[in-house]
Amino acid sequence: MAISPQILAFSASTRKDSFNKKLVAVAARGATEAGARVTLLDLKEYPLSVYDGDDEAAKGMPENALKLKALFLAHDGLLISSPEYNSSYPGGFKNMIDWVSRPAGGKPLAEFEGKFAVIMNATTGMGGGARMLPTLRVLLSNLRINVLADQFGLTKASEAFTPEGDLKDEAQKKTALGLGRKLAETIAKIRA
């Protein structure tokens, strides 16, 4: 019986009309077409206070951090699209990682270790996440996530999408769909 990979797809942006949310949704479609079961996650639905060890010691893990930990544990792979803020990823995304990575009765980094990920970026400029994507790759690798070599930096994102959220350019669409497909196929092959 074929393995159906479980993939968690999300944008590191919480903005309602985020180009990164649109891009990761296209990639998620590619993963679904390749047989994966994809969960689209909106980080805005899981607000978290800024991580503080004293707060954690006094109050324990916030409910949203526990929900996110459960989501990460339940999935084999991650499709992540992140905006570039000052040559890095958004602080809210890093804060979520800081909370989810806290050991809470389980093995440290169990939510991340051995998972597979594909990273991408959508930007209105011409950089395509060139400064942020390597930094994101380092963060995820340090969490023991296997980040696939393929990545995508979508430039001129304000002109790239149809009103329905699809990519206008067929080559860009093929690339985004291909990233989702490759992640699903890689996980299925390794887990077989």
List keywords for this structure.
40% helix; alpha/beta; single chain; 192 residues; globular; 5 strands; Rossmann fold; five-stranded parallel beta sheet
Describe the structure.
- The structure is a single chain.
- The chain is of the alpha/beta class.
- The chain has a single domain (6-191), classed as Rossmann fold (3-Layer(aba) Sandwich), CATH 3.40.50.360.
- It contains six helices and five strands; from the N terminus they run βαβααβαβαβα.
- It has helices spanning 19-33, 53-59, 63-73, 91-100, 132-142, 170-191, and strands spanning 6-11, 37-41, 77-81, 116-122, 146-154.
- Helix 1 packs across helix 6.
- The protein is globular.
- The protein starts with 5 loop residues before the first strand and ends with a helix.
